[in-house]
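Anyone? Bumping this.
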Amino acid sequence: MSVFTLPQAVKEEVLLKDLSALVAHHRQRCAPYDRILAANGYEGASSVAELPWLPVRLFKNLELKSIPDDEVFKVLTSSGTTGEVSRIYLDKAAAATQTRQLGATVQSVLGPKRLPMLLVDTKAMLKDRRSFSARGAGVLGMSTFGRDHVWALDNDGHVDLDAIRGFLEKHGDAPFLIFGFTYMVWLHLYEVARDHNLDLANGILIHSGGWKKLVDQAVSPSAFRARLAEVGLVSTHNFYGMVEQIGTIFLEGPSGGSLYCPDFADVIVRDPVTWRELPPGETGLLEVVSTLPTSYPGHVLLTEDLGVVHGIDDGDWPGKRFSVSGRLPRAEARGCSDTYREAA
Amino acid sequence: MIQFRFGSEGDLTAPVDDRLAVGDERVVDFLAKVARKLLAPAVARRHPELGSLGYFLRPAELNRAVSRMRREDAIVFPRGNVFHVPPANVDTIFVYSWALSALAGNHNVVRISSRSAGAADAILDALNEVDADPVIRRTQRMVTYGRDDVLTAALSQWADLRVIWGGDSAVEAIRKHPLRPSARDLTFPDRTSWAAISAAGWRAADPAARRAAVVGFTNDAYWFDQAACSSPRTVFLVGTETADVRAEFIELLLEVVDQRGWQVDAAMAVEKRVNAYGLAATGAVTALDFPANTVTAMSLAAVPDAPRRWIGAGAFPFAEVGSLLDLVPAMNRQDQTFSHFGFAPAELRAFALALAGRGVDRIVPFGSALTFSAIWDGYDLPHEFTRLTTVVAS
């Protein structure tokens, strides 16, 4: 079973129809969204790229939801670096759909059965209220796709070698799931596996969380894969996703180097000057589209991430394959009312 | 840790024996030499904004400022010790504030932000290169320091006048440190500035005059990413059926911005979208137009919806009003500069009289919004920097 099945042309036809319907759905139910589209003079799209996008940061500034207050089942938040928080409103149906589709996406590489799961993180992190929303929600969300969970780090954040060895003795002979943030895996699993000859050959790694910390250490995505392969971990899948499009993740294919879009989602790379779609090979701003957001107008979002499409219908799975190459810096005012942060 | 950028190192609040007079020759001489440095072609090419600063510091201008300090009915003296906290990112403000205070004969400590760069560094280089009377370095100090409540508190106790630029939150943060009972604050909090075009005046102007107006407006708006307190943001179109004026204005704006090479990067373009979409979401703005990343045009639903916060570099809400007087109810204490084109002097004066000091401190033509003057934010700065002694003999 896989959610990576549709060739690009077929997918775009389906997405255009479904996303156009979602535009109408949200316009009817979310007045601020309707006012934005009206102010932009939006009158319909004849391609996915023509659909009206919202800057993802809008969810930090505005309450955007397409459900009545009494149907709000869950409010997801993401903390940004500047202290602003995105608020994403889910009703019961949307919450169920996002869990189901996230499950279907990871099962494309894990298979239908829940696997024993090694979490490259510390349980203590779940108690830290400040980092909980970002890291904790990711770990908790993914942990439902595994069983017999073991934490690779103790409560102090140190590698718990006994716990890892215990896990491998019990589960290492058959496929098992490893999950963690990319830099945590690099810092706490790769080096330990190398130094202690741990056998990770049956592991399937799913990881995410940005490359900045690793690029600072001069570790590229391809080096990351190659080094992990040296310690026997050959099955690794990076993914890209955001709370503003919860349930949708773009997953790295088996041969590595590219992220793929599930059947219900896609990416568009935009030129940040003309705002037109860029052809494969050219880097621009990433727009992500997904049919999952029904309770809030997050179905067509312009991210502040830079990326590039590498090819279409020419990789491990059908559709576009792409990678994320960086982040747009935040624009800063430089006026008189730009007060000192160090003022006092 | 204190980094001394100009002046003698040492205890900033220790008593100094030196005394300067109002309009002290040694200060005038020093500032005039600094002006020559700033007006040098090499400096002016790299930092064009230093040109107007250099002009402001020429002897003729300085003497004009000194003559404003003198008066018949009292003897004028320096106010004493002045502690300046200028904004982080408008590189030249600290010099205007400090120079007028130095000219008044005060002992000054200027806290320069660690984030300041470019033009600020060029100014500090010029100050340090000039051959000055030693008294200048002993009485005029410019320092950079990180968050240091003890030092800020000590300087606040030292000061007879504390000058706080940089917006509401800076004013509030600095005001946590008490002054001596005899001292006071001169504050420059968050401000909003506007622009207005008379549709009749625009239509009557020839193409060259229209273009010159837009060139001036472009400098006003784009110089500090439209974020200086005097940068015009909302443009009021005064008249009836002004769509043609707006269309031509935007067309010229795009052209001039392009020719002058003002750039808006992708991050700023996204910032503008976020803010403009936010205004549309609340209904404050009913139409959005993004002809290029450099220019974002918005139609306001009503005059009171004109935003007072920064939208981004090159973001212009537009609203039509029948006459300047229609704007009076919407103006308040936060409003500083009102740049204009195409109005008769009598219209502007009637507007100012109707405002009656309840808002708007400066009404200036397009192109002059950022031009600093000794009267600023409603204060006569030379007077603020001096104190008066009266002598009645009998």
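Late reply, but here is one note on the structure posted above: The mean pLDDT of chain A is 90.
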